[in-house]
Amino acid sequence: MFNPVARRKSLFDDRPVEISELTYIIKHDIAGLNRQLAELQAFTNPAQRGSRQNRADEHRGNVVTILQTNLANATTSFQEILEVRTQNMKASKDRSEQFLSSGNATPALGEQRTSSPLYNLARNVPSAPSAPLHTHGQSTLQKRTTASSAAAHEDEVSSAEKGFLALNMMETGGPQQQMMLQEFEDQQSSYLQQRSNAIESIESTISELGQIFGQLAHMVAQQGETVQRIDDDVMQVSDHVEGARRELLKYYASMSNNRWLMLKIFGVLIVFFLGPSLHPFIPMGEPIPPNVEHAVSVSLPHWQDIVDYEEGRLGDAMQTGYPRFFIHRSIQKLASVMQCKFARPGENTMLFPTSQHASQCRDFVRAQEAKRTGSSELVPVRIVRFCVLAQKAQDAGAPSSVRASATNDSETPILLYVVLFPERLFPLAKNFWQHTGTGISSRLADECLRIIAYNQSLLGDCGNLVPKPSAPRRSSVQGIPARGGGFGRSRYQSRQTDMESSMSSSIPSVLGSEEHMVPEAGQDDDEELTLEQAVFVEERYGRNLPFVYASRAKLALRRRIAGTLVGDAKLDEETMPAENAVSARQVAGVCEDDVFLFSCGMASIFHAHQTVMLERELSQQGVPITQESASKALRKMKDPSFALGPFSIGKSVCFGFPYTDTLKILQKWGPGCHFFGHGTDDDLDRFEALLQSQSADEPKIVALFCEFPSNPLLRSADLARIRRLADQYDFSVVIDETIGNFVNVEVLPYADMVVSSLTKVFSGDCNVMGGSLVLNPTSRRAQSLRAVLQANYQDAQWPEDSIFLERNSRDFVARIGKIDRNAETIADYLQAHCATPTQPSTVRGVYYPKFVTRNHYEACQRKQPYGEETTSSAGYGGLFSVDFATQAAARVFYDTLDCAKGPSLGTNCTLACPYTLLAHYAELDWAQSVGVSPNLVRVSVGMEDTHALLDIFRKALEAAEKADAP
């Protein structure tokens, strides 16, 4: 309707009021639509809503874009109509002005006409004013006109005299015409005023439309940026797909040329079809999972394999092992390089990622040797800092092909701390490595070996210091490409601690020029290709984050552990800040700032023990505990690791039978510990009696350490009572929640600190190590413990390990639910075959939280599901132990069990081991004295099909019963 009315060009049939009203309505409608679209765009923006973008968000964004486009088109059309209307009104105004100018000339014409005889019929001829016609000579026509005028006047007079009515038209016509003209001028003036107002309104509307167009232009610019990013992503994806295609072709060519590999595949297929099994058999010494370079477990499929391993008869048959018990091959190679470079004759080496851990190793070796010999003289132990940094290819005059692939875009060095000690003290250094778990990561060792090999390829051989067999398998003389095989930027950026950063600027880089790390001639040219493919597959198909996002991976880990990030949420630095996050844990205020990451679970326990001892030491000195005061006190302490003594603080308490290295830490660092190995209520009574018996001048208990539930007996302590005792007698409580895990139980309200091994069910994939410590922010000791932790904490978790932990843990809540259900089903089955007072059985007992100290476990069991990913209630965990009546039955059961068998727990696959034999082989009698039977088989249940698992355990139990039959 508005379009034809506004475009109409007629001068006398306009409807200006209607046009103005429509213009006003349309203008305000457009402004309202523009405002509503802006609000809709802000609402559908996933970055502002703090949620990850999905297809629904993309659809909503597309709808907003379409609406914005339609509004822009409508606004453009409206502006064009207003411009046409403005032109029409200007044209009308021009016509009106022309008309008025001609009207203003009329009075002059009238004045001119009044002098004519035709307009002065009632006047006397003599009195008639001279007209312009009389200014010249009288012509014949003038004479005739004068004569005729006179005659007409005479006739008029004569007629008047005769009584006729004569109308003098010209006499009255002048004023009437002027009045009509005046009225017409007023109408025209009013019309022009209306037109002027309309034009001003249109110009105002056009100005407002210009502002709207500016806003729309801003929106279009944003959409353009989004389209550009999408285009860049599409191009990147296209490059990745093309890269993947090339790599697959290389894989295909490699496999086609590898006859042995084809034979192996053919053999695997034969075994698969001829001997179906839930778990393929993994030979002794092979990693679990198979073919995983950084696997955490190792296959020990038979009972006798455990005995041979403990007796040291396996030798080189062990390709790998549990990382704290077996030093990874890559770490051994790197240690060999460091030994050749720095060791004196008769010295051995141990490698650590931070100066703090190296110093603690030195103190431990010296203290243990001094205790053994009784000598006050400390043994010589040296620490060398080794800086690993990739040499720039262009500095070495390398070919352009090498320079293109060099990792020269990261200037952050990797700092290694090499502890050198007499060879005879290697068992002590190995004990420190095993107990504390603070050694370097195998992935860190791989990276150092790659960089050293790359630098060697640029600088050339400077001496055969290392035998050729120790060269890394994945090195290449053609350079050290960035992680990701050229599909991305350099992935490695080592995060330094504050102490390391302050020192690195003054230390020259050691480029490994003396190590002979060049591969042998004839070595497989595709070795480096394997590395590129492995990282490419992990990032593109394994959902690994790129290595440049290692800091974000650590942030995600800390948030998941704190309970503020549950599941596979979008990872971003701008996600919900810590102070606004809501934790799934049942402690108010817990956030990622309360979580500290470590290289493994034992490292978190070791640092918790160091923290409580240092906090008590500073408290006894009367020092106000802040981060600054704690740092200053650490620098002044002669024995900051509490390894040498003497000690002024009290002992710790180990409550319940723990994992072996937990007890070793409490015994070997500090003044020792009180051990309550059964972990029962009777033990708790004895512990309370100990507290009551302490005199006023006797050092008080520093802390109580316990597992919930314990490993391997799965007993749960009365945490509420322990908390009351801790508040009454002023000691800290440290709880290891690895077995129960924080999806099933919530122990943080009862603890000052909670530690956990992230290697286990949190990761699940059995290919990376990690540990965590959570500080209870509501604890009355939280402030002092936090100050000591911050003063003494160095982040030693290698970034690549953080990447794998973050990837593996995205679905840990759902995995734990499946594992809980499987474990409860299998435990119920075995419990049904357990011996009773009236019915003997091969199975003497099943240790599972559902059957052992159930009341204490359920007191801490979650009442509500953890997060929103699962609606199922909390379970009893995925670990149980089976105690057999005889060793023969236990041996047959273990050998028959068709699952993965080796150390560790919490894996996605079912994993079993004769725990007492593996962990306490040299102290079986002592373990049995606290209720841990040598015939015990520990089982960590995985995510396999429940019915298939039941069939496996049924067959193993039947075989054990036959072996135990008289």
TrEMBL record:
GO MF terms, alphabetically ordered: cystathionine gamma-synthase activity; pyridoxal phosphate binding; SNAP receptor activity
What pathway does the UniProt record associate with this protein? Amino-acid biosynthesis; L-methionine biosynthesis via de novo pathway; L-cystathionine from O-succinyl-L-homoserine: step 1/1
One GO cellular component term noted in the UniProt record for this chain: membrane
Say which domain of life the source belongs to: Eukaryota
| Cofactors named for this entry | pyridoxal 5'-phosphate
Identify the EC number(s): 2.5.1.48
- All copies of domain T-SNARE coiled-coil homology, residue ranges: 189-251
Alphabetically ordered keywords of this record: Membrane, Pyridoxal phosphate, Transferase, Transmembrane, Transmembrane helix
Polar residues compositional bias, start-end: 136-149
Task: Share an example GO biological-process annotation for this protein.
Answer: vesicle-mediated transport
Q: Where is the composition biased (Low complexity)?
A: 494-507
Which reaction(s) does the protein catalyse, per the Swiss-Prot or TrEMBL entry?
O-succinyl-L-homoserine + L-cysteine = L,L-cystathionine + succinate + H(+)
Q: Where is this region: Disordered?
A: 122-158, 469-507
| Transmembrane annotation, as ranges | 260-282
InterPro entries, per database record: Cys/Met-Metab_PyrdxlP-dep_enz (IPR000277), PyrdxlP-dep_Trfase (IPR015424), PyrdxlP-dep_Trfase_major (IPR015421), PyrdxlP-dep_Trfase_small (IPR015422), SNARE (IPR010989), Syntaxin/epimorphin_CS (IPR006012), T_SNARE_dom (IPR000727), Trans-sulfuration_enzymes (IPR051750)
One Pfam family per UniProt? SNARE
Function summary? Catalyzes the formation of L-cystathionine from O-succinyl-L-homoserine (OSHS) and L-cysteine, via a gamma-replacement reaction. In the absence of thiol, catalyzes gamma-elimination to form 2-oxobutanoate, succinate and ammonia.
Family note: Belongs to the syntaxin family.
What's the protein name?
cystathionine gamma-synthase
